[in-house]
Design brief:
globular, mainly alpha, 5 helices
Length: 89
């Protein structure tokens, strides 16, 4: 039971962090969706399939997020979503 609460708390924190990121960095709905799924461990190919977008469109959203957030790698975004400070990874 404790693990379920822990996972729920983690997902709630991710959701709150995504909202803050969306507002702070001016992410679009599509960009926020991609970042949220990425933070849950979903691959870009699976994000494309599940959202009905092409892989290239998903990659374009990701590149836009990198530019807006000043990140350069997917792991940096995941760290940012999880509320940690991105330093040298």
């Amino acid at each position: 039971m404790g693990k379920t609460i822990g996972v729920s708390d983690h997902l709630n924190r991710q959701s709150s962090n995504l909202k803050v990121m969306t507002e702070r960095y001016g992410l679009t709905v599509a960009e926020t969706e991609v970042v949220g799924l990425l933070a849950q461990g979903v691959s870009l190919a699976d994000i494309a399939e599940s959202t009905g977008r092409s892989r290239e469109t998903v990659r374009s959203h990701l590149k836009a997020v990198f530019m807006k957030t000043g990140t350069h790698r997917q792991v940096e975004l995941v760290v940012l979503v999880n509320g940690f400070t991105v330093t040298s990874i």
